[in-house]
Amino acid sequence: MRITQGCFSFLPDLTDAQISAQVQYCLEKGWAVNIEFTDDPHPRNTYWEMWGLPMFDLRDAAGIMKELADCRRVYGDRYIRISGFDSSHGWESVRISFIVNRPKEEPGFRLDRQEAAGRNLRYATHSYAAGRPEGERYGGA
Amino acid sequence: MAVHEDIGGRSAEGEAVPVQAVDLRKEFETADIGSELAQLDRELVGLVPVKTRIREIASLLLVERIRQKMALATAFPTLHMSFTGNPGTGKTTVALRIAGILHRLGFVRRGHVVSVTRDDLVGQYIGHTAPKTKEVLKKAMGGVLFIDEAYYLYRPENERDYGQEAIEILLQIMESQREDLVVILAGYAERMEKFFQSNPGFRSRIAHHIDFPDYSEDELLAIAELMLEGQKYRFSPDARDAFVRYIAARKAQPLFSNARSIRNALDRIRLRQANRLVSRLDRVLTSDEVMSIEAVDVLASRVFAGAAAAPQTPR
User: Fold this and answer.
1) DSSP state of B115
2) What is the pLDDT of residues B125-147, one digit of tens each?
3) At B264, is the secondary structure helix, strand, or coil?
4) Tens-digit pLDDT profile for residues B258-285
5) Per CB distance under 8 Å, which residues of B are interface residues toward A?
6) Is A66 left (phi over 0), alpha (psi -120 to 50) or beta?
7) Is B170's pLDDT higher than 70?
8) What are the pLDDT digits (tens) for A96-112?
9) pTM reported for the whole predicted model
10) Short-list B291, B166, B169, B281, CA closest to B236
11) B47 in the Ramachandran plot: left (φ > 0), alpha (ψ -120 to 50) or beta?
């Protein structure tokens, strides 16, 4: 099951030229661009791990594309996303976030139902991939 | 959302259908490098060999661009440069103009200049240098990285110096990302020569070596007048004569750094002029007096006292 979160996730995967154009858009808006990765695809997993530091004061997307290439070399079997953080007063939050890399196979989620007191039901989404230890979830190292 | 089609300056149609003939004048005018070159002429006095070289490089790049349109260019040209010359000969200013020219011709995408020295590239402890250098390189992507006094990167006397690490990263990027970044190394001629000898990798990656000559005394005077004009001051005829003598005296003294020394001298002269004006309070001051620099302002310089006595560090 294809994970859809952030911008453009219902579209086909972005090509490098398209990613570069989006990153350039972020830079021209003056946002700090971050590269983040994870292998826990749960939708509530908000805080992914960062690849290096946020990149402030860049002028051209080439630097970020190089970092992305480095990140893909190491974590090519995981989800990687790019986000743009707007530090201007009143915003101070992430303005854009989109997935730029995903595992070859995404096994999807199982819905767990737990019978609670009375006739209550509690639901939980459980990623099949998360059954294995971190780093081994998508056939990686 | 903004989508930039012309990545790398090679226009999309140029790659698709090679053209057979181009109008050279139209190419020159659409690139609009003429205005950059004119600005170079206007801003910088003298420096004839440098300007000639830059014109040559600009022409070469224009032709290179046409060749790309005709699908005759095989590889992206190497554009890294080295500027050698004494302090205050206009290396940084020329770097700014070069960035402008490269940008107009589409060889760099943004045309900004990131000016750094050793401190910005080399870290202070193990593992600090690589991220620091990469950070600077990322900031310079799409523009020009200007490394002032580049030879400080390499310190042969200390074998544990982290400069070598910065050099290695720099060399790698200079080779692999030529389309994204132009590196200009600058510094004194002899020390740069030594630096290139001990780091042959740099020499082979640098396409253009430009040597900046020292300014002659006439040129220095012209520079001074250009600077004063920019600040809305002017020399009185006497002051002008005095300044001619000042330049001669100052040039003979140690630590003379061409245009920079002139700028500092003018700052001190303005200080003395202001002091002279304020010393007589009870009068009406005309704009002419405020703009005019008199001979006494120039002659009060310690350079003249020093010229008679033993040479010393000028004030």
Assistant:
1) E
2) 988 999 999 999 999 999 999 99
3) helix
4) 888 999 999 999 999 999 999 988 888 8
5) 1-4, 7, 109-110, 112, 131, 137-139, 141-143, 177, 179-181
6) alpha
7) yes
8) 999 999 998 888 899 99
9) 0.80
10) B291
11) left
* A109 bridge partner residues: A127
Nearest CB neighbour to B138, from listed A17, A22, A63: A63
Which of B1, B110, B131 shows the shortest C-beta gap to A60?
Answer: B110
Domains of chain B: 7-212 (3.40.50.300), 217-308 (1.10.8.60)
Residues in chain A: 141
Q: Which two tokens stand for residue B268?
A: 């001190």
Q: H/E element holding A27?
A: helix A16-28
Domains along chain A with CATH numbers: 16-106 (3.30.190.10)
**Chain A residues touching B110 at Cβ < 8 A:** 59-60
Residues of chain A with pLDDT under 70: 140-141
Neighbours of A95 (CB within 10 A): 14
The rounded distance, in Å, linking the Cα atoms of A131 and A112 is: 14
Shortest alpha-carbon distance between residue B129 and chain A (Å): 14
In chain A, what is the greatest distance between 2 CA atoms, to the nearest angstrom? 59
pLDDT at B11: 43
